């Protein structure tokens, strides 16, 4: 096809394939259906997995889109059909408190911010969409860890410490587990300047979506300001969580089936 870059076209065709089939797929299935070499298909899927656009099931060896794909165009939906999506709820949170709002998911020893709605002026470094933060220190990461068993959290923390070059950034596992237990009891986490000095982020997990990776929202700004607004922020985040429960804005429907199960 003239006027297109092959790799870019293939990425879009992969997403269109999932939009049509509503099913998870293996490298071989995608390669055969789309007519791509299996080696280049595998590389494309691994790249999309690393960026958080796909999830991978090692048991079935299948790939399936994450909610990050849906969120790419949700703002366009709001402009055409009016507010009501997850993005519009997050934008309302940003306007209400005047601080940056984050949406993140865990990727190994990191949390990736897949949506960042930045406040205009904070005096702090802006958030970048797609950036990775240490899952054991970032508030969004800690609230996502709270849904795991302590044994799994300990393994993640030890892996993170093994790859961390700065001794000051390593986490003490017993202290992390105690912090996570506090997060479980109250239902939210905060960073208190442990990732960026002078910045605090309050984070809360979103209702789970079948077949998708867990997501959490965070609101971050100057530490003093966030501390003063903590109770109001937590109450508003709880309201957002309740609003999203059972709503079609982020509902994925049934868990993804393999192509074999559909035919």
UniProtKB/TrEMBL annotation:
GO aspect biological process, one term: negative regulation of DNA-templated transcription
Pfam families for this protein: HTH_IclR, IclR_C
Keyword terms: DNA-binding, Transcription, Transcription regulation
Cell inner membrane listed as a keyword: no
Molecular-function GO term, any one: DNA binding
HTH iclR-type domain: residues covered: 5-67
Boundaries of every IclR-ED domain copy: 68-254
Entry-linked PANTHER family: HELIX-TURN-HELIX TRANSCRIPTIONAL REGULATOR, ICLR FAMILY (PTHR30136), HTH-TYPE TRANSCRIPTIONAL REGULATOR RV1719 (PTHR30136:SF35)
The organism of origin for this protein: Pigmentiphaga kullae
Protein name, UniProt field: IclR family transcriptional regulator
Record-linked InterPro entries: GAF-like_dom_sf (IPR029016), HTH_MetabolicPath_Reg (IPR050707), Tscrpt_reg_IclR_C (IPR014757), Tscrpt_reg_IclR_N (IPR005471), WH-like_DNA-bd_sf (IPR036388), WH_DNA-bd_sf (IPR036390)
Recorded superkingdom: Bacteria
């Amino acid at each position: 096809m003239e006027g297109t870059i092959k790799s870019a076209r293939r990425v879009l065709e992969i997403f269109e394939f999932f939009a049509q089939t509503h099913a998870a797929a293996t490298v071989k299935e995608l390669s055969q259906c789309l007519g791509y070499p299996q080696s280049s298909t595998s590389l494309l899927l691994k790249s999309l997995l690393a960026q958080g656009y796909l999830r991978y099931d090692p048991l079935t060896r299948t790939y399936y889109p994450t909610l990050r794909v849906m969120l790419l165009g949700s703002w366009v939906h709001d402009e055409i059909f009016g507010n009501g999506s997850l993005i519009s709820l997050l934008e309302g949170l940003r306007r209400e408190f005047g601080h940056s709002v984050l949406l993140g998911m865990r990727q190994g020893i990191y949390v990736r911010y897949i949506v960042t709605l930045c406040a205009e002026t904070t005096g702090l470094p802006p958030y970048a969409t797609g950036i990775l933060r240490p899952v054991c220190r970032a508030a969004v990461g800690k609230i996502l860890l709270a849904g795991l068993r302590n044994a799994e959290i300990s393994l993640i923390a030890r892996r993170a410490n093994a790859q961390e070059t700065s001794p000051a950034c390593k986490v003490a596992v017993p202290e992390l587990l105690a912090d996570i237990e506090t997060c479980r009891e109250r239902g939210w986490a905060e960073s208190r300047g442990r990732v960026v000095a002078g910045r605090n982020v309050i984070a809360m997990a979103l209702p789970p979506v079948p077949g998708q990776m867990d997501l959490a929202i965070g609101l971050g700004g100057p530490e003093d300001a966030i501390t003063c607004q903590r109770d109001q922020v937590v109450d508003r985040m709880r309201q957002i969580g309740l609003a999203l429960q059972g709503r079609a804005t982020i509902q994925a429907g049934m868990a993804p089936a393999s192509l074999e199960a559909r035919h």
